[in-house]
Amino acid sequence: HLQLVESGGGLAQPGGPLRLSCAVSGYTLDYNGIAWFRQAPGKDREGVSCLSITENSTYYADSVKGRFTISRGNTKTTVFLQMNSLKPEDTAVYFCHMGDSWGQGTQVTVSS
Q1: What is the tens place of the pLDDT at every residue in 47-92?
Q2: Buried residues in 36-56 as b, exposed as e (16+ CB within 10 A)
Q3: What does the alpha-carbon distance between residue 44 and residue 73 come to, in Å, rounded to a whole number?
Q4: Are 19 and 80 in contact (CB under 8 A)?
């Protein structure tokens, strides 16, 4: 059973950075990748970025390409989402997703 716990959300200034973390625990050997999604108020949940563990490749939504970076920690039990040049439209609850499991989400608010 996978458990995913996000952290690192908060209030950021437009143009500023935030780094989200997703702590992964449980059996992960059968899973090929991990992803970040976000959901803004009144909108559908959308994919932001994903990391293929087997292929060591990454994917980014067009809206965040060049600004966000997904990576794994040295222990491979933590996945990060480095968010730079934040925009107000990045405001959302961000979720970590692997297999059938979702984290509880962490709120990111970008506002001056």
Answers
A1: 999 999 888 899 999 999 999 999 988 777 899 999 999 999 999 9
A2: bbbeeeeeeeeebbbbebeee
A3: 29
A4: yes
| Strand pairing report for 10-12 and 68-72 | unpaired
Q: 3-state class of 90 per DSSP?
A: helix
What is the residue type of 34?
Answer: I
Tokens of 80: 């990060």
Token duo for residue 100: 């059938």
| Structure-block tokens of residue 71 | 């990576």
d(CA 30, CA 102): 16
pLDDT in tens, 20-56: 999 998 877 667 899 999 999 999 999 999 999 888 8
